[in-house]
Amino acid sequence: MLRSQQSCHASSWRTLTKMETEALHIKTPVLESHPLTTLSGFRVFLKLENVQPVSSFKIRGVGNLCQKAMRKGCNHMSWDDADALALKLAKQPGYAYIPPFNHPDIWEGVATVIQESAAQLPEKPSAVVVSVGGGGLMAGVLQGMQDVGWNEVPLIAMETKGANCFDAAVQAGKLVTLDEITSIAKSLGARTVAAKALEWTHKHKIINHVCSDQEAVLACERFADDHRMLVEPACGASLACVYERLFKGWKEQGKLAELKSVLVIVCGGNIVSLKALKEWKEKLGLS
């Protein structure tokens, strides 16, 4: 939630600050994963958004939206626990609502992850893999793919069972609100996916898949062993499609052509620790 002292309209004389003009996110590396390349039989590249200052891609979208609000004159930032209260306050003069994933400025900011990747990769990937919660990452990545001319590159949208609001919407052909979030991947815990995410299914080739919490957590563990990095189950969902060799089945089903390389968006590890990973494994009976 952003609040201005007067209004959300920039004064004509005001000089923009460094905070308003410089991106809040950093340019993250794209690295080829030799363990995953060896496992899968095609080149696997990792866009390491887990090394962002906030350990998540989300700084790209939220940062872009907040900076645009600041340029309009909003200059005090706080986050309210209750989304309902935030929406109520946003109707008052001098306030701006900052949604976590459902806003064009969020998608515009997230699109930079693909714009960067296109310049970093040695070749256009055969597929791009993302995790889906509320759909902000997915919508932004697809916008970025359109921006760089990757219109024909399939997107793999991964969710965990119990947080699969996008899959539910795809199956129903309309937005669906889950009764509750039962997945351990709490960062994917949106009960309703953004309408923009569902809209993209009519404009781009998207393969969506729901993995289990067990597969997501085991992918986190294997990723830590292979790459010495901790990520959370929401990110593990994307990694699971490589570790579980799902691409082989999609090729056999005719959903994918021959793969030369795949780009996986390693979306983050904001709520992970060795202790948390151990507790997730115990809860899921994996210890």
TrEMBL record:
**Gene3D superfamilies given in the database record:** 3.40.50.1100
- Keywords of the record: Lyase, Pyridoxal phosphate
Enzyme Commission no: 4.3.1.17
> Which reaction does this chain catalyze?
L-serine = pyruvate + NH4(+)
Q: Which domain of life is it from?
A: Eukaryota
**Is Transmembrane helix one of the keywords UniProt gives this record?**
no
Lyase is among the record's keywords: yes
Q: Which GO terms describe its biological process?
A: isoleucine biosynthetic process; L-serine catabolic process; L-threonine catabolic process
In terms of Pfam families, this protein maps to:
PALP (PF00291)
Q: Which cofactor does it need?
A: pyridoxal 5'-phosphate
**Family to which this protein belongs:** Belongs to the serine/threonine dehydratase family.
Name recorded for this polypeptide:
L-serine ammonia-lyase
